[in-house]
Design a protein that fits this description.
By secondary structure, this protein is of the alpha/beta class. It has a domain of about 120 residues: Peroxisomal Thiolase, Chain A, domain 1 (3-Layer(aba) Sandwich), CATH 3.40.47. It has twelve helices and eleven strands. The strands form two sheets. It has a nine-stranded mixed beta sheet with strand order 3-2-4-7-1-8-11-10-9, with helices on both faces. Strands 5-6 form a two-stranded antiparallel ribbon. The longest helix is centred in the middle third of the chain and has 19 residues. The protein is globular.
Length: about 400
Amino acid sequence: MESIKDKVAIVGMGCRKFGENWEQSSDDMIIEAVYEAYEDAGVGPNDIQAAWVGTIASGAAGVCLAEPLKLPRIPITRVENFCATGHEALRNAAFAVACGMYDVVLACGFEKLKDTGVGGLGVGRGLHPVLEGRRTGPGTFAFIATRYFYTYGLSREEGKRTIAQIAVKNHHNGSLHPKAHFQREVTLEQVMNAPIIAWPLGLFDCCGTTDGAAAAIITRADLAKKFRDDPIYLKGIGLAANQILPHFEPGFDWTGFEMNRSAARQAYEQAGIKDPRKEMSLAIVHDCFTITELIIYEDLGFSPKGRAKEDVDAGTFTLEGELPINTDGGLKSFGHPIGASGIRMTYEVYKQLQGKAGPRQIKDARLGLSHTLGGPPQVACIAVFGNSPG
């Protein structure tokens, strides 16, 4: 399989502030995010040769991007792949450039969830706004948490305190980001004592329902320096989808997801990464719940299986730690407007690798990763980026 490593680069990105954006329509958010990306890249609508838009609940076909942006009559494709939808727009846009079809393209993701009353999946699909046609999201990951605690010998108190530390970390990071939905720190005691949604997951263990939009301008790597001095190069991108609900699959142990591991193997192989914990400078991962981030540490090779608690206790994944994770506050601080999340995560990697992350900036950032996990969950995507070719 041929690698996409260093064939394309991101030369501009934009992100509308995530939150309860009652005063804006989807069109308004798209315009704000895309025009920030235009300005960042030094391009305009007439420079875009094709576009991909990711959304689940908020748009119809490519028209949902063409109409607000008044794009010229170019190919525009809407994509959808559960919570990996934003990454899917980015992935398809990158492949289109890498194959030589286009030189400059746009990837955009957005979602307007607060106005719908729907908890993220499907307007007009007949899905229950809480149950999503099955058990609840918090209930699913509560199963994961309790099984993980049991399998690796954590008491109720130890397990709850471990995931609570993740919430504290991410809310601290989010307090430093002006585009986060929630910009307030929380204490360990507040997380531990918050109302329970599905034990052990309390209010501060669950991400919010949010509006948002994000965008990226992608070009050929050999053209990137014509747009800016500090482009960010795509090193590898992996996508994995399960053929059945994972909990129906023989051998599923409720302590991790093969989709995460498979997507990681693909991305790491393309990027030439042998030891992600040592080689990665930062990672922005899909912390829809605090327990999800904990198992992602292990699925993505950042912590040994069953030993993520040791790294959490050691502060390994804090801004000052060995491998900072969710430096922007993650889904815990941004919420999860589904189509926007994958590109929003990449926006943070992009800024960190350019040294433009402000008070969240980590030292010597060279390689960064963005990751989404979605569906029941049935799909995961991982993209690895670097600030220099080679």
